[in-house]
């Protein structure tokens, strides 16, 4: 378990998502990384109804990661992230009179997982309700647990792999946590940030198309 | 006359048979006591006693029966006393009596107590008659008092022993139902765990929502309703203060 | 990807039913019970394990009467105090059942979680309802769990220490429970047999909590 950066990889005009994914995977394989199976990060959104006393209507995002199969990450729109046993999903069901699952809100990033020395790469295609949304690439540097200590190394790796344009974007979330111990919850917060961006983009697109 | 004799004869046979039954029961019991004392258990002992007792009962029933002529009306007197051994007699008594002589006859055919005993009885009779009825009454009362005292003492001791043995088999009270209920109500519903300052609010504000609920006969409702009211008090501005 | 929970539900391996028997023992005789439990349960050669927990009960309440309040019980270990482990427990309404079933049965979710759970629940709209401390011993016999514990009232909210607690009663609560996947009714029989062995020291029974609330 180390420090993780999740990058948004744009799909250029005239190319399909699959083509871009293939391109990145080829790049990674050329480095000499070894395929180590598939991975999946999924996210479901629960919205508070109007019926809770003395509380603004909150949103709870429930994330799972194949990297932590027994855990469940519940992230509020306030940013608070609760890490719990996977059984937490059962607790959410008990709250169904207060927090309703948004229909079609389930969004996930799925793809190939690679290992390369101290690094782990994950190339994920993001889809919501089986619509392709975009590409997220995750780079993990295992020997380190403080983000600030390996930021430059990560940047270098991402530049060589994904190009400097992509490497420049750094999660606003990660910037605030440069000298704290990095945890899987931080990875999930990054994913949530990207997922939310995808959803926003979709709604903007829909608004423009209208 | 002949009829009476016949009756006597047949009833004698009856009596002999019954007596023989008693004798056999006694003999077998004695045999068991002597030879099987190691394996003999209490129930078989009781069985034997019961057998003997029932034989005695049937004998006395025969004696009291209508068919038996009044035996006391018959006299028996020895015709012949002989110092010689009588084989026939020995056989009849199964070897217990060998001769019918002047020594044994008074013992076997006795109808009155021995003279010494008779004297003693007479003495007691005269002594009893010499006491005045007042005195006698007093002594009677005394005796009754003493007996009832002793009876009381025995009864109180018995009670004590009974209690003792009960306490030995019955553990002292190790759990209390009311405490169990208090504890379970506390952990399941928070009864008695909410802070003092919140209690008055709770009793003053029986919310209308709760009253509606408790009228519903649904099984879950009842429990829920009590949880609800107490919660309303708790949530009225006492969020858990974060450290 | 199917998450672990739904897989667990589908294969009926997720523990979510609690079978429960309850009773209490007067403090004076508690050691006798502990001694007996030590003999009956696993690890008889070891000293009984102790625990010391702080439970905070949170409630999510709706504005309308249709919404039944939901209670989450948050527990943390006070032992050791510097590294508490936290978990959320959800308990459903307990079913008394008929005479053929020897124990209470209720839905039960035990979910271990990170230490920011109080903040998280508060932000979700949960409010603290009450809290208490529970200290005592626990034993295992197979998958049966026995706890003998005292319940302490908090004099002040917040961090519990020795000065801010008072014992509720002169008795310890005794609970025999198994958390198992749904439909494993035979466990209730095992529990009944075990409870028989604690008589007459403790009467472990299925206590109707609804009845207690009426009193």
TrEMBL record, chain A:
Signal sequence bounds: none
Gene Ontology annotations for the cellular component aspect, listed alphabetically: mediator complex
Keyword Ribosomal protein applies: no
GO molecular function: transcription coactivator activity
GO biological process: regulation of transcription by RNA polymerase II
Family statement drawn from the similarity comment of this UniProt entry: Belongs to the Mediator complex subunit 20 family.
Protein function: Component of the Mediator complex, a coactivator involved in the regulated transcription of nearly all RNA polymerase II-dependent genes. Mediator functions as a bridge to convey information from gene-specific regulatory proteins to the basal RNA polymerase II transcription machinery. Mediator is recruited to promoters by direct interactions with regulatory proteins and serves as a scaffold for the assembly of a functional preinitiation complex with RNA polymerase II and the general transcription factors.
Assembly and interaction partners: Component of the Mediator complex.
PANTHER family: MEDIATOR OF RNA POLYMERASE II TRANSCRIPTION SUBUNIT 20, UBIQUITIN SPECIFIC PROTEASE HOMOLOG 49
Record-given protein name: Mediator of RNA polymerase II transcription subunit 20
Natural source organism: Patella caerulea (Rayed Mediterranean limpet)
TrEMBL record, chain B:
Segments for region (Disordered): 193-243
Intracellular or extracellular location(s): Nucleus
Any Gene Ontology biological process: regulation of transcription by RNA polymerase II
Signal peptide positions on this chain: none
Record-level GO cellular component terms: core mediator complex; mediator complex
InterPro entries: Mediatior_Med8_fun/met
Assembly: Component of the Mediator complex.
Name the UniProt record assigns to this protein: Mediator of RNA polymerase II transcription subunit 8
Organism: Patella caerulea
Encoding gene (name): MED8
TrEMBL record, chain C:
GO cellular component: core mediator complex; mediator complex
Key words, A-Z: Activator, Nucleus, Transcription, Transcription regulation
Location(s) in or outside the cell: Nucleus
Pfam families: Med18
UniProt xrefs under InterPro entries: Mediator_Med18
Keyword Kinase: no
Family classification: Belongs to the Mediator complex subunit 18 family.
Role description: Component of the Mediator complex, a coactivator involved in the regulated transcription of nearly all RNA polymerase II-dependent genes. Mediator functions as a bridge to convey information from gene-specific regulatory proteins to the basal RNA polymerase II transcription machinery. Mediator is recruited to promoters by direct interactions with regulatory proteins and serves as a scaffold for the assembly of a functional preinitiation complex with RNA polymerase II and the general transcription factors.
Assembly and oligomerization: Component of the Mediator complex.
Protein name: Mediator of RNA polymerase II transcription subunit 18
């Amino acid at each position: 378990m180390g420090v993780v950066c999740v990058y948004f990889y744009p799909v250029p005009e005239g190319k399909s998502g699959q083509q871009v994914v293939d391109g990145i995977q080829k790049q990674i394989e050329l480095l000499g990384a070894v395929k180590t199976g598939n991975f999946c990060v999924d996210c479901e959104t629960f919205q508070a109804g109007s019926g809770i006393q003395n509380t603004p209507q909150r949103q709870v995002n429930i994330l799972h990661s194949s990297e932590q199969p027994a855990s469940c990450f519940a992230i509020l729109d306030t940013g608070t992230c609760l890490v719990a046993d996977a059984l937490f999903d059962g607790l959410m069901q008990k709250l169904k009179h207060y927090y309703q699952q948004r229909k079609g809100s389930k969004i996930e990033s799925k793809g190939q997982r690679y290992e390369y020395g101290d690094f782990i790469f994950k190339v994920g295609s993001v889809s919501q309700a089986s619509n392709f949304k975009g590409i997220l690439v995750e780079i993990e540097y295992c020997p380190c647990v403080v983000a600030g200590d390996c930021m430059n190394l990560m940047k270098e790796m991402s530049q060589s792999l994904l190009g400097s344009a992509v490497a420049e974007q750094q999660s606003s979330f990660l910037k605030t946590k440069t000298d704290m111990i990095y945890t899987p919850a931080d990875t999930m917060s990054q994913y949530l940030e990207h997922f939310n961006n995808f959803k926003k983009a979709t709604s903007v697109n829909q608004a423009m198309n209208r | 006359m002949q009829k009476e004799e016949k009756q006597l004869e047949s009833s004698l046979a009856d009596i002999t048979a019954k007596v023989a039954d008693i004798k056999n029961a006694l003999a077998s019991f004695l045999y068991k006591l002597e030879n099987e004392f190691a394996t003999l258990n209490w129930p078989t002992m009781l069985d034997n006693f019961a057998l003997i007792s029932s034989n005695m009962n049937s004998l006395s029933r025969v004696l009291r029966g209508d068919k038996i002529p009044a035996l006391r009306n018959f006299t028996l007197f020895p015709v012949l006393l002989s110092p010689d051994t009588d084989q026939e007699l020995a056989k009849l008594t199964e070897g217990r009596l060998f001769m019918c002589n002047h020594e044994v006859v008074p013992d076997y055919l006795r109808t009155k107590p021995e003279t010494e005993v008779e004297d003693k009885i007479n003495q007691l009779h005269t002594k009893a008659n010499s006491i005045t009825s007042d005195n006698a009454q007093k002594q009677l009362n005394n005796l009754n008092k003493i007996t009832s005292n002793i009876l009381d003492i025995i009864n109180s001791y018995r009670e004590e022993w009974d209690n003792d043995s009960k306490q030995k088999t019955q553990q002292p009270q190790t759990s209390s139902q009311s405490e169990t209920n208090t504890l379970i109500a506390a952990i399941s519903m928070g009864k008695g765990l909410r802070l003092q300052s919140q209690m008055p609010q709770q009793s003053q504000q029986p919310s209308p929502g709760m009253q509606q609920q408790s009228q519903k006969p649904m099984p879950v409702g009842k429990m829920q309703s009590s949880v609800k009211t107490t919660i309303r008090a708790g949530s009225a501005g006492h969020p858990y203060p974060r450290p | 990807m199917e998450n672990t929970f739904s897989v667990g539900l589908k294969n009926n391996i997720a523990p979510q039913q609690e079978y429960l028997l309850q009773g209490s023992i007067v403090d004076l005789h508690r050691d006798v019970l502990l001694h007996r439990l030590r003999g009956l349960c696993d690890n008889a050669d070891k000293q009984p394990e102790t625990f010391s927990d702080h439970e905070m009960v949170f409630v999510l309440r709706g504005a309308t009467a249709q919404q039944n309040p939901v209670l989450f019980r948050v527990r943390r270990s006070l032992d050791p105090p510097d590294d508490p482990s936290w978990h959320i427990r959800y308990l459903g309404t307990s079913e008394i059942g008929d005479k053929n079933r020897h124990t209470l049965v209720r839905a039960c979710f035990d979910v271990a979680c990170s230490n920011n759970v109080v903040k998280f629940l508060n932000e979700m709209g949960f409010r603290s309802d009450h809290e208490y401390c529970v200290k005592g011993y626990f034993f295992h016999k197979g998958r049966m769990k026995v706890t003998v514990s005292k319940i302490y009232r908090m004099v002040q909210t917040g961090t519990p220490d020795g000065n801010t607690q008072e014992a509720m009663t002169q008795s310890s609560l005794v609970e025999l429970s198994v958390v198992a996947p749904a439909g494993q009714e035979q466990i209730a029989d095992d529990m009944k047999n075990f409870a028989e062995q604690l008589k007459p020291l403790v009467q472990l029974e299925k206590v109707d909590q609804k009845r207690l609330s009426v009193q």
